[in-house]
Automatic annotation (TrEMBL):
Modified residues (4-aspartylphosphate): 53
Protein name: Response regulatory domain-containing protein
SUPFAM superfamilies: CheY-like, Histidine-containing phosphotransfer domain, HPT domain
One example of a Gene Ontology biological process annotation: phosphorelay signal transduction system
Organism encoding this protein: Cyclobacterium qasimii
Superkingdom of origin: Bacteria
Molecular function via GO: protein kinase activity
Native organism taxonomy: Bacteria, Pseudomonadati, Bacteroidota, Cytophagia, Cytophagales
Length: 252
């Protein structure tokens, strides 16, 4: 299947890197940071399938797909990837022309199964075994185990360290935004943190950011400060696990 090529379209750099690491063992790939860049790549290159984020600047996923179809740029499968996750949203995305839908946070297992399904001519959905997700543990190690099937431990370590660096930067930005009560912008930063922590199985941060994002629109200044302290605490805990290699040592 290494002769197949995937176009990854997502405005978040860490999302792109995670997707590249998950699929890179089986498929060639290129990445675009928004819909406009994706269209230019599609006009000058051949791909077999597209992974399309929905919420992007410049040109969102739905508008991008509309242009692709109206201008008949390509007829390859396009999989929508979005934080929307209820059945109504799924049906809406399919009705707009997407061939499939994967909800964020994206499980590596779901991503690989969907790509295989749409590239396999006999359309047989494979089932890649995965341990039940344990949301009550700090790290969902089934994500690491799934990634290890396709990449080296050093490669996977770099992904988690990249996420740690991004999480530290976003947390600092949230602290600054909180001084000016910019709740909407804080919500946008939390959305990124929630999605990436969920994809990588960093449950300690996923739980905190998911609750924080849910509350942010109605937060008071006092509640905001408390939530930021919880975010910093979960980040500090994750940092210790990554920097001491505690989550990787059993795989050495």
């Amino acid at each position: 299947m290494k002769n197949k090529k995937v176009l990854i379209v997502d405005d978040n750099a860490l999302n792109r890197k995670v997707f590249e690491n998950v699929i890179g063992h089986n498929y060639f790939f290129e990445s675009a940071s928004d819909g406009l860049e994706a269209i230019e790549l599609l006009k000058s290159n051949e791909y077999d399938i597209i992974l399309m984020d929905i919420q992007m600047p410049k040109l969102d996923g739905i508008s991008c797909l509309k242009i692709i179809k109206e201008e008949e740029i390509t007829d390859i499968p396009v999989i929508a990837i979005s934080a929307y996750s209820n059945q109504g949203d799924r049906e809406y995305f399919l009705s707009t022309g997407f061939d499939d839908f994967i909800a964020k946070p994206v499980k590596p297992k779901d991503l690989l199964e969907a790509i295989h399904f749409h590239l396999n001519q006999n359309k047989t959905r494979i089932n890649i075994p995965e341990k039940e997700k344990e949301i009550d543990v700090d790290i969902n190690e089934s994500v690491i185990q799934q990634l290890l099937k396709y990449h080296s431990l050093d490669n996977i370590k770099s992904v988690y360290k990249d996420f740690l660096e991004e999480a530290e930067n976003l947390t600092e930005e949230i602290k600054i935004l909180a001084e000016f009560n910019k709740f909407e912008e804080i919500g946008e930063k939390l959305h990124i943190l929630k999605g990436n922590s969920g994809t990588l199985g960093v449950n300690m941060m996923y739980k905190v950011t998911a609750l924080f994002e849910k509350k942010i629109k109605n937060s008071t200044t006092e509640e905001l400060n408390d939530d930021i302290e919880q975010l910093k605490s979960s980040l500090s805990k994750f940092k210790q696990l990554v920097e001491n290699d505690k989550i990787f040592i059993k795989y050495e």
